[in-house]
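Quick log. Single chain, no ligands specified.
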Amino acid sequence: MNFSPLKNDRFLKALLREPTDRTPIWMMRQAGRYLPEYRETRAQAGDFLSLCKNTDLATEVTLQPLRRYPADAAILFSDILTIPDAMGLGLYFETGEGPRFKKTVRDEASIAALPIVDTARDLSYVTDAVTSIRHALSGDVPLIGFSGSPWTLATYMVEGGSSKDFRHTKAMMYQTPELLHALLDKLAESVIDYLNAQIRAGAQAVQIFDSWGGALSHVAYEEFSLAYMTKICRGLIKEFDGQKIPAIVFTKGGGQWLEVMADSGADALGLDWTTPIGRARDRVGHRVALQGNMDPAVLYGSPDIIRAEVKRILDDFGPNPGHIFNLGHGITPFVSPDNVKVFFDAVVDLSQS
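-> predicted structure:
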């Protein structure tokens, strides 16, 4: 597709555990509601889904944080629920309630009726955005593609939206596990197609967001979440256009499972803020890179507090290669953009080799 050569590859090098001149940084939800320019663009689009499906506007909001901050990667602006929407469940957003689906899947017939997503046919607006963003970046930084994990997507599809207790999904897991496995298998096949399509469209790394894996017991996590992310990692394109394509697995609340997660085939593991990153490095050694892991709420603190916490995490990880600095989850909407600049600048300044 004649993309511009990459000028800044420290993020990709760190994912592959290669030495870098400083610790690379990006931020989950770095294109989001905390930025006034994002809110203006979203208002122009009319609603969130329309913004995701408008190639020019999705490109614009992806680039907005890069104009403010020295981020070492851009991440595709989209949503984790595009696959269930493409399966015909009717995604919509209720003000104050988050994502909802018009249909749920809770029995054998509804699961059997679900198609495996063909990204080229069903989600071309996503791959169009990937290609547009990659061209617009002009090689300044690499582009991350992403998907939700099968378990996380399944919870939304079975519950019909967000949930605190995952009552219907866990009931299916313990009463009719074969049905949940059938759903998860379809989702894994769809995610493989989806992420590989993003890679072919221009994504230079991919992340699997397992937002709700931490709600599972140890045994259930391995069977119903990790097994399917491992299947995805094994099915991903590992090299494209002469470049390695690293994969990141991020399970929020998954710090207790790092050893088995490191066997998933991912190149890096994302950490939330509840696991000390130095201890995580001791546990997994150099099998994988680690991404994280500052509490997003630190960004409500003073500049001195933000800088101190950045230094603490950098010191905890130590001088080893393979650290990508990030928040332990997405930035929250009420953070000051000025505090975000303090955060980025602190990582750049304090991690210089």
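The first helix runs from residue 10 to 15.
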